[in-house]
Amino acid sequence: MAENRKMICRYCGADHFPGPTCQHSPTKKHVGVCNGVNCIYCGTKFVIPQTCQHSPDKRHKLDN
Ligand SMILES: [Zn+2]
Ligand SMILES: [Zn+2]
């Protein structure tokens, strides 16, 4: 039941993302702290075949 667990943005500390532009991120996107389960770009559970709307290369990513 941890699939929708909130993640914290490593740059601004926001506890909900993706949302508006992140003022503190070099890419202007919130990037989560890796927890080994959720994509750091969109915060949803990591699924390889799916496209990530918020990732620079359109792929979900688990860590940095
Ligand atoms: Zn942020
Ligand atoms: Zn993603």
Structural features, described:
- The structure is a single chain.
- The protein is low in regular secondary structure and 64 residues long.
- The protein has one domain.
- Helices cover 0% and strands 0% of the residues.
- The protein contains no helices and no strands.
- It is globular, with a radius of gyration of 11 Å.
- The relative contact order is 0.23.
- The model has no long low-confidence stretch (mean pLDDT 82).
- One zinc ion (ZN) is lined by residues 39, 41-42, 52, 54-55, 60.
Describe the largest sheet. none
Percent range of helical residues: under 10%
The mean pLDDT is 82
Strands, count:
0
**Bound chemical compounds:** zinc ion
Distance linking N and C termini: 24 Å
Number of domains: 1
Summarize the entry for a quick read.
Helices cover 0% and strands 0% of the residues. It has one domain. The structure holds zinc ion (2 copies).
